[in-house]
Amino acid sequence: MKTLLTRAKHLYDRYQYDALHYECRRCGYTLAQTRPTCPTCGSTEIATIPL
Ligand SMILES: [Zn+2]
Fold this sequence. Notes:
By secondary structure, the chain is of the alpha+beta class. The chain has 1 helix and 3 strands, in the order H-E-E-E.
């Protein structure tokens, strides 16, 4: 039971980490991970947004 709770905690922590997303400031495209440029419009203005 303790093991299960520990595993749940790990998943929760990972979820928290994943609760960041990246959004292009120019076109609003949401990226699943950080990139130097927007794949849609090529802008380098990628904002990091904590959810
Ligand atoms: Zn863009």
